[in-house]
């Protein structure tokens, strides 16, 4: 029976991204990185030192950055285009849509410091709309890893996949998750914990919180099934059918509740099996404040998720 636990200590997933992309580039000269004056925040200082000729810094020009990535892909390279997720998806959305997704070019978009990780910089730097913007672009794979191991596996997979990918990485420290017989599979939800009373579906930085919430619920006799839905496009519909069979679902994400994971699950249940769905995330533009404060204000904690689960159960 699946039963995930969190290791002691917290980790910056960008470190896993950086070490993995350096190792991949050492083995494959086609791999290049394109940045928007974000070598430091993308943790690519080591990559730049090791591969100066394969580090393209276009300056603060995100539309150009994505276009350059598309051109490199068209020339046979494997470009990882890395920038703050709020800018790579917001400022350069037209290029992402037309030059990458519609064209089907082999570009790997790496959205750094996603969600509300830039907390104190306010709404202009929050990236909570990216799921809603990218999910309709049917030809782009959207992945949001939950911990360092999953980040490294997602980067490795993206390098071998022929086609556009969006990797949503966070700078917020998270624990490493221990899952028995863990295997990374794109398009397949990862069962973190079994349970038949309801399902909690989470992604990214909220997965460990969902696991902790399930442990709290177990103390009250509620068996919660926990899914790590790392791939938002395409969704694992088989896993959603099984989740809906429990009779109630809670979704948890470091993103807007409109159009993201919660929206996707609500769309699915409305079409296939109408059941109560409690969506946890952010309602819209967020005020300035630390990421920890923003999480606490919107119930993105183990007790907050457990409370949402009880609300969902009460609606059955």
Concise structural overview:
With 316 residues, this protein is of the alpha/beta class. It is 38% helix and 20% strand.
Which outline best applies? Answer: globular
Return the CATH class of the largest domain: Alpha Beta
The CATH architecture of the largest domain: 3-Layer(aba) Sandwich
Strand-pairing-aware structural class = alpha/beta
What fraction of residues sit in β-strands? 15-25%
Write the CATH fold name of the largest domain.
Rossmann fold
Could you give the order of strands across the largest sheet?
Answer: 3-2-4-5-7-6-12
Q: State the total count of DSSP E strands.
A: 14
> Main β-sheet: number of strands, strand sense, barrel status?
7 strands, mixed
End-to-end C-alpha gap: 26 Å
Return Rg in Å. Answer: 19 Å
Total discrete domains: 2
User: Which parts are unreliable, with pLDDT below 50 for 5 consecutive residues or more?
Assistant: none
- What's the pLDDT, averaged over the residues? 95
Series of H and E elements: EHEHEHEHHEHEHEEEEHEEHEHEHH
Count of helical stretches:
12
Q: Assign a percent range to the helix content.
A: 25-40%
Task: Supply the CATH superfamily name of the largest domain.
Answer: Thiamin diphosphate (ThDP)-binding fold, Pyr/PP domains
How is this structure best described in words?
It contains twelve helices and 14 strands. With 316 residues, it is an alpha/beta fold. The strands form three sheets. The protein has a seven-stranded mixed β-sheet, with helices on both faces. Helix 2 links the parallel strand 2 (31-35) and strand 3. It folds into two domains: 12-168, Thiamin diphosphate (ThDP)-binding fold, Pyr/PP domains (Rossmann fold, 3-Layer(aba) Sandwich); 186-314, Rossmann fold, CATH 3.40.50. Helix 1 (13-27) packs parallel to helix 7 (148-160), helix 8 crosses helix 12 and helix 9 packs across helix 10 (261-272). The protein has helices spanning 13-27, 45-50, 62-74, 85-89, 93-102, 130-134, 148-160, 207-219, 237-244, 261-272, 291-297, 302-314; strands at residues 5-6, 31-35, 55-57, 78-84, 108-112, 141-143, 165-168, 177-178, 190-193, 198-202, 224-228, 231-233, 249-256, 277-282.
